[in-house]
Specification:
The protein is α+β, with helices and mostly antiparallel strands and about 350 residues long. It contains twelve helices and 15 strands.
Length: about 350
């Protein structure tokens, strides 16, 4: 455990720059373009095309989607409103406000109203920031204490939190560019696989070392209260020793930035899900979009029951690109296509 904390601390000292700028520079010549990066932080840049057109980017936000559509996509509550009105299946839930914001906008939808709504849905419920990303502060809460603690953690950074009914299925991210599916992958929550000897802490340490060797900059937060809570509910702790081949999931959200794994399903994706993802992107006024779906069943099968978890107008693919050579190649090809689209 101490060694894992040391490794985590040493990695946090190093600031990992987004890959987007470097990838764009690498592939730009194939699109007849050049990329100028701001030299100090290397997270913003200018793209110059032979046509004379200039485009810009900041981290994973590219000069491609309309501003209004991008702003709506970054607000989960607003995006859910419009998607639901258009008939897309969204997660049942409501938005609630911090006490300060509730008073400012003269609303009764404060943290106590949120708790009463959670009771009406029946515990457990999902609580998440309205404008957050990378799965930060997203939690499946089972008790009043956990509910209020999670909501207050969210309100330190966001005025709005969503309370939603949990849905069960397989979690997928589909990246759409105009009318094309660029990539699709299943996302698995942070997990360890037992060897019959090692503790969960030791298995996490092993997983962190594997991330470092592969060049993936994900840092597993062993102090994440959500991990301790999930283990406790399973009758386990960091000192538990899973039997050989036993898979222990440590988080409920499947974000790669939290240590989750990915399985590429681009070629296996059912044509109907491709059509749904492209249509949703178009209907939300976007050209580039990460569509997150929860599916009862497999994405290779004809759609049955599914939900739109959220959409992302600036899908960050750093962790996906770092998960393997094939994934990195997919991301490079995606940004090449994005570059070509930006010249139109």
């Amino acid at each position: 455990m101490a060694r894992l904390r040391t490794m985590r601390a040493s990695m946090k000292k190093k600031y990992h720059l987004p890959l987007v700028g470097d990838i764009l520079r690498k592939v730009a010549h194939k699109a007849g373009a050049s990329v100028l990066l701001e030299p100090n932080w290397r997270v913003v840049g200018q793209i110059s095309f032979k046509s004379g057109r200039k485009r810009y980017f900041r981290t994973s936000t590219l000069d491609l989607n309309p501003m209004g559509a991008s702003a709506i996509a970054s607000d989960k509550d607003y995006a859910n409103f419009f998607m639901a009105k258009m008939g897309y299946p969204v997660i049942p839930g409501k938005a609630f406000y911090s006490d300060t914001w509730a008073k400012t906008v003269r609303s009764k939808r404060d943290i106590d109203a949120a708790w009463n709504y959670a009771l009406s849905l029946r515990l457990p419920v999902i609580v998440k920031p309205n404008s957050g990303s990378r799965g930060k502060n997203v939690a499946l809460v089972h008790t009043k204490r956990d509910f209020y603690r999670t909501m207050r953690a969210i309100f330190r950074h966001d005025h709005v939190a969503l309370v939603q009914r949990p849905v069960i299925g397989n979690d997928y991210r589909i990246v759409v560019l105009d009318k094309q599916i660029i990539s699709a992958y299943q996302r698995l929550p942070l997990n360890v696989v037992g060897d019959g000897r090692s503790t969960i802490a030791g298995l996490l340490q092993k997983k962190q070392r594997a991330f470092v060797r592969s060049g993936r900059d994900t840092v597993i937060d062993i102090n994440d209260a959500r991990i301790a809570a999930k283990l406790l509910r399973s009758g386990m702790s960091m000192r538990s020793k899973p039997v050989k081949n036993e898979v222990v999931y440590l988080l409920n959200n499947a974000n790669l930035s939290s240590g989750g794994d990915s399985i590429d399903v681009t070629k296996a994706m059912h044509p109907a899900f491709k059509k749904i993802s492209v249509a949703l992107t178009h209907d939300m006024g976007l050209r580039l979009c990460g569509v997150d779906l929860m599916i009862e069943g497999d994405i290779s099968e004809k759609p049955g029951k599914y939900w739109v978890l959220e959409i992302n107008s600036a899908p960050g693919l750093d962790h996906y690109a770092q998960s393997g050579k094939d994934q990195n190649k997919i991301v490079e090809e995606m940004y090449l296509q994005v570059l070509k689209s930006m010249d139109n």
